[in-house]
Amino acid sequence: MRIQHDQQAWRSNAQAAPEPGRGKSRAKKVLLGVGAVCLGICVIAISTGKGKEAAEAKPAVSSPPGRSDQPQPTHSKKPETTKSARDRFGSEDEVRAFISGVKEHGTPQEASAAQHVKKIQGTERFNDVFDTASVHTDLEGGITGSSHGTCNLIASSFADAYNSKNGLVTVYGADGKMICNGKF
Question: I need a labelling partner for 18 at 20 to 30 A (CA). Which of 34, 62, 82, 159 fits?
Answer without folding.
Answer: 34
